[in-house]
Design brief:
The protein is α+β, with helices and mostly antiparallel strands. The chain has two domains: 110 residues; 136 residues, no CATH class. 43% of the residues lie in helices and 27% in strands. It is built from six helices and 15 strands. It has a five-stranded antiparallel beta sheet, with no helix packed on it. Strands 2-3-4-5 form a four-stranded antiparallel beta sheet, with helices on one face. Strand 10 and strand 11 form a beta hairpin. The two termini are 32 Å apart.
């Protein structure tokens, strides 16, 4: 009888110790998973709250201008392929887009041939077209010259209050309103436009104009919340976090159930 009781007690103690060690490892694993996920839970919670109140916080109207982040989003600014300046005005070709005085004027070109400032009017020469702007940089019109010229515009100059164009060995002079051009042999240009690189301040203005207003805070928060900001790796990481949160929830329920049964 005593031996049987001792055997029974020994088996019971053995099972109890094994179960105790298992529960300890289970609790320890639950605790470490929970601690590992604290940062992600806080990060997801804060970004979720911010996105939930995006309209009130005007996150869709707030912009981020960090160069490294804009470059990561593919908004890297190309180098200026051609740039000309005259009388304080600068025309630059950037990624096929025409910029005047650091502003995108909404015109696309394959090449620039020069710039000439005539008081209230500024003319920028393209390959087959010339573009007219006010002295404040507002676009007036584009004049197509392909039907009149025997070749592309090669150079833009100025003679008094007239614009001079050189094309295929011929000179073309504008009327006083810079609305039409005609071939001329009786004019000597006082100025020929020559390409010059933009300075640091002009380059900064071009970069800002190329990128527009940049990225909205809402867009970045959405990508942070979903993990898409890390390209393909980010969503996988967020999926793993979600799986571990499920594991944490289930393990918490199991431990709570065990504790309740003991009571």
């Amino acid at each position: 009888m005593n031996t049987s009781q001792m055997t029974s007690n020994g088996n019971g103690n053995g099972n109890g110790n094994g179960n105790g060690r298992g529960r300890r490892w289970f609790r320890r694993g639950h605790r470490w998973v929970g601690l590992s996920l604290v940062v992600f839970v806080v990060y997801l919670s804060l970004s979720g709250i911010a996105l939930n109140h995006s309209g009130d916080l005007e996150l869709d109207r707030r912009y981020i201008g960090w160069s490294w982040l804009l470059d990561a989003y593919g908004l890297e600014v190309p180098e200026a392929s051609m740039s000309f300046s005259d009388a304080g005005h600068r025309a630059t070709l950037l990624g096929g887009r025409l910029f005047l005085d650091g502003r995108d004027v909404g015109q696309r070109e394959t090449t620039l041939t020069g710039i000439a400032a005539l008081g209230p009017v500024t003319l920028v020469g393209g390959e087959q077209d010339v573009y007219l702007f006010t002295s404040e940089g507002e676009f007036i019109e584009a004049i197509e010259l392909g039907s009149m010229l025997t070749g592309p515009v090669e150079q833009v100059g100025r003679a008094g209050d007239r614009v001079i164009l050189r094309s295929a060995g011929k000179l073309y002079q504008s009327d006083p309103d810079v609305a039409a051009f005609e071939v001329t042999d009786e004019v000597t240009a006082e100025y020929w436009s020559a390409g010059t690189p933009p300075d640091a301040e002009e380059t900064a203005a071009l970069e800002a104009a190329w990128r527009g207003q940049g990225l909205t805070v809402e867009r970045v928060l959405l990508d942070l919340h979903s993990g898409r900001i890390l390209s393909k790796t980010g969503p996988v990481l967020m999926d793993l976090v979600a799986v571990f949160l499920i594991v944490l929830s289930v393990s918490g329920l199991i431990m709570s159930n065990v504790r309740n049964r003991r009571k």
